[in-house]
Every structure is written in structure tokens, then in C-alpha cells.
Amino acid sequence: MDFADSSEHAAFRAELRQWLETNLPEDIKVDDAADQRVASDRETLEKRVAWQKQMHAAGWVGISWPREYGGRGAEFMQQVIFDEEYFRARAPVLPTANALNLLGPTLIHWGSEEQKQRHLPRILSADELWCQGYSEPGAGGDLASLRTRAVDRGDHFVVNGQKVWTSGAHFADWCFLLVRTDPDAPKHHGISYLLVDMKTPGVTVRPLVLLNGHRHFNEVFFEDVAVPKQNLVGPLNQGWKVAITTLMFERSGAGGRDHAAQIARLAELARQFPNRQEPAWNDSHIRQQLAQLAIDVKALQVTRLRGLTRRLRGEPPGPEGSILKLFGSELALRIADFSSTLLGPYATVDAPTEAVPDAARWHNRVLGARQYTIAGGTSEIQRNIIGERVLGLPKG
Amino acid sequence: MDIGFTEEQELLRETARKFLDAECDSRFVRARMAEGAAVTDEFWQKLAVQGWLGIVYPEADGGSGLGLVDLVVLMEEMGRRVMPGPFLSTVLLGGAAIAEAGTSAQRREWLPRIAAGEKKAALAWTEPALRWDAAGIALPARETEAGFTLSGTKLFVGDAHLADVLVVAARTRDGSTMEDGVSLFLMPKDTAGLTITLLPTIDETRKLCEVRLDNVALPAVFLIGDKHAGWAPLSRVVARAAVALCAEMCGSAQQVLDMTVDYAKLRVAFGRPIGSYQGVKHQAADMLVAIENAKSLTYYAAWALDQGVDDGPLAVSMAKAAASDMARRVAGTGIQLHGGIGMTWEHDLQLYFKRAKASEVAFGDASWHRERIARLING
Predict the structure, then answer these.
(1) What is the ipTM for the molecules in this complex?
(2) pLDDT tens across B50-91, in order?
(3) pLDDT score recorded for residue A251
(4) Which residue segment(s) compose the domain that A266 sits in?
């Protein structure tokens, strides 16, 4: 049992921290990186693209990718340290983060040489942006029920159907898309994985504005969209297997990493904020809730480290992994709820106020945090997964 | 970074599990509940042979010199079997206080004999006012020419009725802080003026006592460590025992979850195993989440105390708050998901529920520790 960095890892952490302190521009820093992972407008997007290019030039993008594909071949623990330091510095999620984390490793494992040469360098340099075409109106938690159809027309596929909850599709140049290529096969065995140029005729992106007014998600419609055969990733009808790797990445990373900073800020507000004439901190109910959130943030952090240790040791995933998404997302929601307990009406204002300069942040959390217990598999699905796959209870 | 156990620790776990499976089944535990001692001489000697009774004492004092992280492994296994008897009170409280604060002569006198299973100890620190901080130590020890005279009541003292020696925390002066003026004393069981009454408490596998001191005169050599400076070592002992208890609570809760999952797979209602219903399945999932998080915080606290890192006190309170809430919820949900059979005397869940309740409120409950956390994070 050792929670401390090795001297090598400590040096890596120090080098990265120093580089971020020197280079991260003030005007692109974010309070809650996960909430703001899609840029709010094109100007912000362009600043972030420039930031990614700067990082790429310094060799800090895609560090866990193999060297032959432009990465550093960083070991897993370095990637963990990278993520910790990156979010600690309040750096924004990179414009191609979904491709760096999900598509890139999939292409490296399953892609043709041509696909790798074509796409991997542009993912690293943010010359092309990607969106993830998985969820559909009738296939969310039960993703394998997806119905977007791709029909074989000799040298190309013709795609028809609809995707939904497509983050950043309005900025994307490309989409990594799951389609049904064999409607007669059992549902997991008739799916294929395609790369689709978003400029192809027949692709329509329609905004899906969230309840906090953010344009983050979209609906994407495919109407007789022609996709060349060479854009198939992995074997035909084995797209589920191809995609599973990326889904595992999404579940293990979900839940946000910025909880500790939120707790620190809420504690600060509690000491300053006059709630019924006195600082809110003087109310034991407030102190109890803050302490509980601090406990849960620490628990989540250590549970995550236990899961990482298993992975580093090459052991099969333990129960730690499957509880992170459930507990982390519900914790994010409880923090948001607490902010309105603490701040009262100030948490309902979408603008800076004198007493609470960052009122809008908490207003946004109250609304935006609702997505975390839904996106990437709802809490209900997560409890089924834990009940069935970890505890071995029978399916309903 | 490596947040897992070593091969040696896993071996200790395996050995402990085999030993306790063989020596500490529920029939054994129930037989001990019915007795005042809650332990047999034979069982205690077997623990000594295993090396457990001196596990955390320095090798020079007859122990094995293992750390808190090693102890966590053992406590989890003891918790799985609701091991009865005075292990916590003798080894981790009374004996540990002598190890932490005692002179070399005091350590030499008691620790090898505790490790060998020849003597038992207990720690009398809490009082009827029941505070878990230094202000809770109010019982006065007046200095006399020959030594000290102590009068007052210590309450909820674990296994005092079995102890050959009590370590008593008392106030020798009202210092500038509550911490200043606490002193620790050795008090052999036959000391005049000492009256020990066994309390009928919820967990009969781990007995609690009232200890009354009526003008108890102690020679000066029975002072442990420096006069007035007993709180620091006492708080270190209590912190380590609290973390050990958290580990035991995690082990017990894991067993409750395992029993509940087994039952939910077998028990059929409306034509299906009850575990297939989401109303049951989701509660079982929540039990697991609570247990895993309590384990995480317990492991971190154990490491933090072993390493002496700055946030050790915070880590202890986080672990105990989480374990206290977790233990109550898991044991309670275990009964709920078993239905009526879980409410019976015959079913072993009662052992786990009662231990969970007793442990929940020992060393401060969740609310008390959350309040302490708030103070600590407030800087």
C-alpha cells in the first residue's frame, strides 16, 4: 500500500505542472472542465484548438499513444498523473479529447494502415474534430439495439438513420459511427463501425439544447449517406467488439475529476456567505453536509486509485471500476444540490452577483449536473450492472 | 502509487480466514455471547500462537512489529466472523497505550505477557458525559505525597472485567488547553477502590463495563509516560484502534452482503429469485458501493497513520464517518432483504447487526466525525 508517487513519477508530475503553469493561457481556464467540455462558441473553440496545437508541439498530446503513432508511449500511471495535473491546472478538455481517448486507441488496435495514417496525426494536431455516433432515440443504455442502417452497395455503404446526444457534432469534421449491417443477426453481431465525413451529402446536424441553454449535444440525421468501404473499422458485423474497448474507456473516465476544487470553493463560500445574518458555516447542518461531501470526494478518489492499481498489476477489473460511474455521477449531483442549499436564491441566478461572484457557476451546476447520472449509462443501468456482473445476481 | 496489499498481506488474510473458519464459526460465537467473558482461554491461547496478540507491538516488546495496514487485513477477517472477545480492548487499546506511552520497564512488564496471551488489558478513557476529544477526560487524579488518588466513573470501557490491568486516563490539572493535563495510569485489577460492573449491551460478543473509582490510590510509578502529557499518546492509540475498527466493520459488512446476495439468488417469490428484481438488486448494488468506499477510506487512513502524513487525523475521521454510516445501512439492508428470517434469533444476521450498531457509535459516530472534519478542513 503506497499512495505516494515514485521518484520518477514525482519528477514527471513536477515537469508537467511547471509546463502548465508557464503555458496555460488565463483566458481559456475553466472551473468545471467536464461541464464545459464542448466549447460554448466558435471563438472559444478556436482558442482551444490553438491550445491543443501548442501542447502538441511540446509533445503533451496523446502521451499514452505508441511512439510510432505520434504519442510518447507513456505508461498508464503517467496518463493518470497527466489527467490529475491537467484538471488541477483548470485546463479545458481538448477539442479532440473524444478521439484521443476513444477513437485513437480503437484505430490503433483495429484500423487499417491507411486509416491510421489518414486520421491519427490529425487527431493529435486538432486539424480535424470528431463526434461519437453511438446513441439513438431507441438505443441509449441498451446501445446494442441501435437501428441506424448501413446497406452494402458494392464499393460503399449507404447509411440511413438517426443519432442523438452527439456531443460537439456541430463542430465535427468526422463521426465515428455504429451502424447495423446485418438486421437478421442477433443484436450484438450485426453491428459495424464506420468513419463518416460530416460533409457527406445527406448528413444533417440539428442542435439539441440542454435545459441550461447550452448547445452541447445534437441530433444527427443520415439520409442516403454514402460511406466508402475503406472507412469500415475492423471486420464487417463485428463493430460491437470494436466499440467495446472505447465504451470501457468512457465508463472508466466518467464522473468528472474536479470535485475537490468544487468542495474547496463551497467551503470558502460557506465561511463568507451570510446565511440568515451569520456565516453559513456556523450552521451545523451546512458543516455536516460539507464534511460528508469532502468524505465522498476522498472516497471516490481512493476507490479510483484502487481500480488503477488493479489495472497496473494486470489483475482483472474489480468492483472498484464499476462503482466509479455510479458513485461519481451521483456525487456530482449531490454537490450541485448542496450548492443551492448553501446559496439559496443566489444559486438560481445565471449571472455574477455581489455576494456570490460565481453564482452562474452554481446555477449551471444545478441544471447541468443532472446529465451525469444519465449520460454514459444511467444510474439505474449501473446498478443493474453492479448487481448482475459484480454480485452475480440473476437478470430480471 | 500502489493501492493494494502485498503478497505477505494476502497470505496473512488467507491464513486468518482459514483459522477463523475453523475456530470461530457461529456456534462458537453464540456460545461466547451467553457467557460473561465472551472468550475462552483455549481460543485466546490459539490467537497468541497465531502471533496476533502482539501483532502491532515492537519486536523488542515481544511483538511482531507489523503496521496498521497489515492489521487492517486481519481485522477484516475478524469482522467476517464477528470474532468475540477482548482483542480490540486488550491488544489495540490497553496494551497499545502501554506500548505508546509506557516506560521501557512498563512495556517489558506487560507487553510480552499480553502478546503471549498470559495477561489482558483494557483502556478506561470515556466517561458518562461521553466526549471523544480531550475535554471528555474529566475524572480527577489528585497528586499526593505517595502518588495519585483517582475518583470518578469511566463508562463504556471494553472488557474491563477481563483485564489484569487497566490503563486509566485522568485529569491531573486544568491546563491552558483541554489536551494539557491528561495523564495515563496503570491500574492492576485488584486495586482497592476499583469496582467493575458488566453492562448488558447490544453486542454481547464484545462486552462493555462501567468502571467506578472510589479514592483509588496509585503509587507514582504507575504513571504512564509524562504527567499532563497523556493526551497525545492516547489520541494516537485511539486513532489507530478506530481505523482497525473501521476495517473490522468493512469485513463484517462484506460478509452481510455476501450472505444477502446468496439468499437473493436462492429465495424465490412470485416465481423468480428475489435478486432478479431491481428493488432488491439495486439495494445490493448500493451496499457494495458503500462497502467499497468505506474500505478505500480505511486503507487510506491506515497508510496515512503508518506513514505519519499530515492529513492523518482527517483521514481517520473520514474513514470512521464513512464506516459508521456504511455499517448501519448495510446491516439494516441485509435484514430488510432477508425479510422475516433476518429478524430471527436463529439467523446469524443478528450477530452482524448488533456488532455494526456497537461499532457505529464507538470512537464517535458519523456526525461527530463530520463535525471534526469540518473543523479540520476549516484550517
Answers:
(1) 0.96
(2) 999 999 999 999 999 999 999 999 999 999 999 999 999 999
(3) 43
(4) 254-390
Cβ of B3 within 8 Å of Cβ of A290? The answer is no
CB distance A391–B285 less than 8 Å? yes
Residue count of chain A, please give it: 396
Is residue B76 left, alpha or beta, with left meaning phi > 0 and alpha meaning psi from -120 to 50? alpha
A299, A308, A310 ranked by CB distance to B296: nearest: A299
What digits encode the pLDDT tens for the residues A85-100? 999 999 999 999 999 9
The answer on A140 and A208 residing in a single domain is yes
Segment 55-84 of chain B within 8 Å of chain A by CB: 69
Give dist(CA A376, CA B3) in Å, integer. Answer: 27
| CATH number given to B122-228 | 2.40.110.10
Domain residue ranges in chain B: 7-120, 122-228, 232-377
Q: B7-120 has which fold?
A: Butyryl-Coa Dehydrogenase, subunit A; domain 1 (1.10.540)
Task: Give the 3-state secondary structure of residue B305.
Answer: helix
β B165-171/B121-124 pair status: parallel
Mind listing the pLDDT tens digit for each residue in A285-339?
999 999 999 999 999 999 988 988 888 888 877 776 678 889 999 999 999 999 9
Q: Is residue A107 part of a domain?
A: no
Whether A114 is in a domain gets the answer: no
Q: How far is the C-alpha of B243 from the C-alpha of B301, rounded, in Å? A: 7
Same domain, A60 and A139: no
> Do the beta carbons of residue A320 and residue A363 sit within 8 Å?
no
Question: pLDDT class for A253, splitting at 50, 70, 90?
Answer: very low
Residues A66, A37: Cα–Cα separation, whole Å:
25
Q: What is the phi/psi pair of residue A134, to 5°?
A: -110, -65
Domain B232-377 = CATH 1.10.10.10: no
Q: Are B3 and A305 an interchain contact pair (Cβ–Cβ within 8 Å)?
A: yes
User: β-strands A203-209, B165-171: how paired?
Assistant: unpaired
Q: How many CB pairs below 8 Å do chains A and B form together?
A: 159
CATH for A271: 1.20.140.10
Q: How far is A77 from chain B (nearest CA, A)?
A: 9
Q: Indicate if A261 and A377 belong to the same structural domain.
A: yes
Taking CB atoms and an 8 Å limit, are B303 and A3 in contact across chains? yes
Active site residues of A: 250
Question: Closest partner residue to A299 among B297, B304, B378, by Cβ?
Answer: B297
Neighbours of A147 (CB within 10 A): 15
In A, minimum Cα distance to B297 occurs at A299
CB atoms within 10 A of CB A69: 18
Beta-strand relationship, A174-180 and A130-133: parallel
Nine-digit cell string for B241: 484502534
A275 and A366 part of one domain: yes
Q: With a cut of 70, list the residues of chain B below it in pLDDT.
A: 379
- Identify whether residues A262 and A383 lie together within a single domain: yes
Mean confidence (pLDDT) of chain A: 92
Look at chain A and report how many structural domains it folds into: 3
